[in-house]
Amino acid sequence: MPASAITNALTIDVEDYFQVSAFAPYIARSEWNTRECRVERNINCILEMLARHDTKATFFTLGWIAERYPQLVRQIVHEGHEIASHGYGHERASEQTEAAFFSDIHLAKIVLEDLTGSEVNGYRAPSFSIGTGNLWAFDCLARAGYRYSSSIYPIRHDHYGMPDSPRFAYEVRPGLMEIPITTLRVLNRNLPSSGGGYFRLLPYFLSRWMLNRVNGHDRESGIFYFHPWELDTGQPRIAGISRKTRFRHYVNIDRMQVRLNHLLGDFKWGRMDHIFLNRIAKHVSVA
């Protein structure tokens, strides 16, 4: 199969600008209801862009957002995209007890399934916060009825990362697959090549080359992710944040939409469940 025939997974982490983990020291959770919500406008912009490119995607959605914008969630499903879980309240898995984590992911699954009328198969931990210190989270996900997770980023990072974990999809518990965020292996080190702040920071041609390399050399589907607020040049600026946080959050936001349009045109994209769960089903049927 040529690299151009490989379908990559396009994923969106549905959260608003004030819910970003890096802003947690500056914005109390109790303030969320008083903040200007911009997620509806941003998601509508994304849906229009996907429709223009005839592309389907997976939306990892917070239960908190879904309860406040139920029609938006239904619209995502109506347009043929997958709804998956980003947890309920955007709390890092690594900062919760096992019981609290299970309650969060179970509640989110119920909220999303009640709104959409369809099964929610996937989960992504906020800030890729499953790692060596809380692998019990996979037991919770399996018990809650999820079929796949996309919660591990196999890189070294100051806030997350599990660099020694497998780079591509694997069964992490019976009936539960972990589908890591895509990296490129260079000189015995995994380099981020799948979206987020790195996509905004690096020149587009470099991001395109890395994903082409994963498709062509590794013969694997890439997992690309971004957030609705990354397209929003009009979002309120948060006062008092550190210089590093300010740079990471706002760098090249004004270029994001143009780059995404290039990305959607340069690669073949689809939903996580269609790419990976269908792959499992075909394997089982052949076996």
Chain-wise SSE layout:
Blueprint: E1 7-14, H1 39-52, E2 58-61, H2 63-68, H3 70-78, E3 82-85, H4 98-116, E4 122-123, H5 136-144, E5 148-149, E6 170-173, E7 176-178, E8 183-186, E9 189-192, H6 196-201, H7 204-218, E10 223-226, H8 243-250, H9 256-266, E11 268-270, H10 272-286
Parallel strand pairs: 1-2, 1-10, 1-11, 2-3, 4-5, 5-7
Antiparallel strand pairs: 6-7, 8-9
Task: Output the number of helix runs.
Answer: 10
Distance between the termini: 21 Å
User: Which CATH first-tier class would you pick?
Assistant: Alpha Beta
* pLDDT averaged over residues: 91
Strand proportion, as a percent range, falls in 5-15%
CATH superfamily: Glycoside hydrolase/deacetylase
Radius of gyration: 18 Å
The count of β-strands is: 11
Helix and strand element order: EHEHHEHEHEEEEEHHEHHEH
Any idea how many domains?
1
Low-confidence stretches: 281-287
Assign a percent range to the helix content.
25-40%
Shape: globular
What is the annotated CATH architecture?
Answer: Alpha-Beta Barrel
CATH fold-level assignment: TIM Barrel
Largest sheet descriptor: 5 strands, parallel
The helix/strand class is: alpha/beta
